Amino acid sequence: MARDPRYDVLFEPVKIGPVVAKNRFYQVPHCTGMGWLRPNTLAAMRGVKAEGGWGVVNTEYCSIHPTSDDLPYPYASLWDASDVRAHARMTTKVHDHGALAGVELWHGGSRSGNLFSRNVSVDVASMPSASGVPFQSRAMDRQDIAGFRQWHRDAALRAREAGFDIVYVYATHGYLLSHFLSPLTNHRTDEYGGNLTNRTRLCRELIEETKAAVGDTCAVAVRFAVDGLSENSESRDMFAMLAELPDLWDITVDDYSHEMGVSRFVTEASLEPLMTFVKSATTKPVVTVGRFTSPDTMASHIRRSVSDFIGAARPSIADPFLPDKIANGRQEDIRECIGCNICYAGDSLGVPIRCTQNPTMGEEWRKGWHPETIAAKQSDDRILVVGAGPAGLECARALGQRGYDVMLSEARRELGGRVSLEARLPGLSEWARVRDYRTRQLQNMPNVQIYPESELSADDVLLVEPDHVVIATGSTWRKDGFGRSNPAGIAGLQTQSRVVTPDDIMAGRLPVGHVLVFDDDNYYMAPVVAELLQTSGCKVTYVTPDNLVAGFGQRTAEQSGTQRRLMELGIDLVLAHNFQRLDDGEAVLDCSYTGRIRKLSVDAVVMVTARSPNETLYQQLVRKRSDGTAGTVKSIHRIGDCDAPAIIASAVYAGHKYAREFDAADAGSYAIMRDRVEA
Ligand code: ADP
Ligand code: SF4
Asked: Fewest CB atoms within 10 A around its CB: which of 30, 288, 454, 468?
């Protein structure tokens, strides 16, 4: 299809110093949980982004020296010749598709714990590590600063050797350079502290020295935070002093939970109000992020001269082929990021990145999965998928893409399963994109028949005479208190009418009065239920055995926002307390540390603890198969929450995996390729 001329502006080439980006789609540096630990995984993933049309593809933060070591968070590195060879795998793949490769040279200063290298970290001062480890940095003396400049220069030279076209000076996010820039952390009395000229000195030196080292062939970019860049602010003056030095400005904010905020709290293009002045303060090209998924917003951003590039991390993860789709008039096919930040959890857990919307993310090398292409069917077998939640929808979509005849039955009128229900909870409306992308794709597949309002029994399934059956019937929140903290359940709960679950809430059965929301799940469900009830007029007390509200949210950069939201709403928080029993309107809680008892008089409790797989249909069919009454059915599988309740990303992944692998020679094999030095 032809490109919509409204979006032509996005495909203009842009000169960045000595190099030219073929278009305005710029994948900014983003962590992957791969880094130097998994070079093949990384190279394949970045290569797919370039194939999908991104004009610039960057690495994650890339350590210049072993004094900057962030493990267990997997960063890239350019310490030696081995690193050069590893990165060359990525730059070659990126160049194969006509894109520029960029590297974000990084020194963490006191923020990197150096737990792996065991080096003393260095920084503007001797200061405690923001990473939470009980170590302080050494205050850099003149010799240290000279050494640091040399490390940066050497890393830039290695970057060029590895084939990079853009080399960053990274001056934000609480790492070493931002500590030199900030008056809060820089109390030095030498030529690197005090006035603005002195505090920007190191940054200026690095820009100039990087240019001198590699600037004839590589562009030099600076990543810079505009927090506090209000009229007449100091950092605005700082920007003005450096404005013409680099070849490109990558503008962001220091606060990750804003820069990559979850969609519950931060909307598309949220940095724009902070950076309206930037373009008029420099003649150099500017890139910024904003979880851009709408081509109209992107084109408007460029036309209004907010920036020269559309920077993207998450939109490029959810859809590596986003530029290609716009280029070919296929914007309806864009798999829009939902802003859940499961991608970030990969890095924060030290494992390769995954994505709720894009199940192929992180599997490009290991499984050879491609986000847009899939092997053709191997037979004329007919497949019945029961349940159209994220698992069933993705399974039907991917099987349909392979060319199989697919029947998708769904008990409800509305498709989407849990994502349709959860999308109605406060702040989760973008969850519906998981459903919408897939239903749009399915509408164009004549080989996939969808049957809403069709709740199937085992006999119904067999009447259809499918060759293969995939059960994706989801899960049900438990009422009995069973969960992490109460593996024996909470006695008596099930018999009390005042006990409800998120399923009741999502079905519109809201309690009234004083409601205790018990969170033994530690993710988003209990906080959003608490928010809904409090804003609906209930008086909510949130109770969790954990020390924090929604602790898993630390992995997705939303924990502090979640806790703040509950506090601002006036919800009472009772942390580090388990729910022992409910005595006829009196909830008995016990302190997780001392066992001390606390009692609350409540009108209702919402149990957010664990879910039971809806596996009855699967078990009935398996029994029929084993007693020879399942007709000609060749296989029966269960996927998603009805197999093992988990996050939405797991359900989508399970559906995709089934579709890719059910007919493979090694179907069901647990063997995986590992990206490591083989012993
Ligand atoms: P998952 O996250 O694994 O996709 P969901 O709970 O989101 O699970 O979706 C499961 C879907 O299966 C729901 O939409 C539910 O209505 C549907 N479903 C459950 N049992 C049946 C059945 N027997 N026949 C058809 N659809 C069913
Ligand atoms: Fe977007 Fe979620 Fe995918 Fe991250 S994991 S790219 S936030 S959809």
From this structure: 454
pLDDT confidence band for 234 (50 / 70 / 90): confident
Q: Which residue has the tokens 């880094």?
A: 35
The predicted pLDDT at position 257 comes to 74
Pairing mode, strands 19-21 and 14-16:
antiparallel
| Residue located nearest, by CA, to atom 2 of ligand 2 | 340
**CB of 77 sitting under 6 A from ligand 2:** no
What are the structure tokens assigned to 59, written together?
A: 């690495």
For ligand 1, pick from 409, 415, 459, 473 the residue to mutate: most ligand atoms within 8 Å of CB: 473
Q: Is 342 in the pocket of ligand 2 (CB under 6 A)?
A: yes
pLDDT band at 132 (very low <50, low <70, confident <90, very high): confident
Question: Ligand 1, residues 410, 434, 653: which to mutate, most atoms within 8 A of Cβ?
Answer: 410
The pair of structure tokens assigned to 151 is 């490390």
**Which of the residues 7, 75, 175, 542 is marked catalytic?**
175
Strand partners, 539: 514
Distance, in Å, from the CA atom of 270 to the CA atom of 132, rounded to the nearest integer, reads 29
Pair 348, 70: CB distance under 8 Å: no
352: helix, strand or coil: coil
Which among 572, 577, 576 is positioned nearest to 587, based on CA atoms?
577
Q: Which helix (H) or strand (E) holds 20?
A: strand 19-21
Ligand 2 contact, 338 CB (< 6 A)? yes
Residues pairing with 600 in the sheet: 587
